[in-house]
Design goal:
This protein has about 240 residues and is mostly helical. It has a domain of about 160 residues. Helix content is about 80%, strand content about 0%. It contains seven helices and no strands. Helix 2 runs antiparallel to helix 4, helix 3 crosses helix 7 and helix 6 runs antiparallel to helix 7. It is rod-shaped. About 15% of the residues are buried.
């Protein structure tokens, strides 16, 4: 009995010794890497910063664009305001120039008048009216571009000289008629001679007034057309 038990024990021991034993140790969980749990936070932060940067960039771009647009609009307004101011100044100078030219029209008789009335109306007022027109032309600053044209200057000054010469011519015949009247009073010439001198003087003065009147109306029509073109109030084809 004892031998049987010993045999069993010995067999068990041999079996255990012959069987390889694999010992497994329980694997301890390793701590997660800090990158693994910090990476989402880093990505979210970067996305947030990128969004904020994009927003700030758009805001700065919009601000600069608006400032640029406002500056450009301000420049356009300034230019438009300056152009309008120059236009108003030119309009004022054209108005003054035409007004002074119109004074000559009031001097020249539009209907036949007796010799005495013609002399009083023209001889005493034509030259001062022409002088005022000359002064208006000389004081024109914003019409400088118009008077830079040699053709315009020549036409303007030609009329001024013509009107001034007409006044001198009329005054010369006035003196001739006055001399004839004095000689008639002093009885150094006959009444017939005095009357002939009066008729001749009347005829020449009348022709001179008609001539300078025609020259004036051509001049004023030209001046009005030039003013309209310069101010662009009408279109010329």
């Amino acid at each position: 009995m004892v031998l049987h038990v010993a045999s069993i024990v010995a067999l068990f021991v041999d079996t255990v010794a012959a069987t390889p034993v694999e010992i497994r140790c329980a694997q301890q969980p390793t701590p997660e890497s800090w990158v693994k749990w910090l990476l989402p936070t880093i990505i979210q932060t970067l996305v947030s910063l990128a969004s904020i940067g994009a927003g700030v960039g758009i805001a700065v771009w919009s601000f600069r664009r608006n400032r640029q647009s406002e500056h450009e609009q301000w420049l356009r307004n300034q230019n438009a305001g300056h152009e309008q101011w120059v236009r108003d100044q030119k309009k004022a100078e054209w108005k003054e120039l035409l007004a002074k030219a119109a004074e000559i029209e009031r001097v020249l008789p539009s209907v036949p008048l007796p010799l005495k009335d013609r002399l009083s109306k023209v001889a005493n007022r034509l030259k001062p009216a022409v002088n005022r027109l000359s002064v208006a032309r000389a004081s024109s600053v914003f019409l400088q571009d118009f008077f830079e044209s040699e053709a315009n200057v020549n036409r303007f000054t030609s009329f001024i000289k013509d009107a001034d010469a007409a006044d001198t011519y009329i005054w010369a015949f006035t003196e001739v008629l006055r001399g004839s009247a004095e000689m008639f009073v002093n009885k150094t010439i006959s009444q017939d001679k005095a009357e002939r001198d009066l008729d001749e003087g009347d005829r020449k003065i009348k022709l001179e007034i008609e001539r300078i009147s025609a020259a004036y109306f051509n001049f004023i029509e030209w001046l009005r057309c030039e003013a309209a073109k310069d101010l662009r109030t009408v279109k010329f084809r």
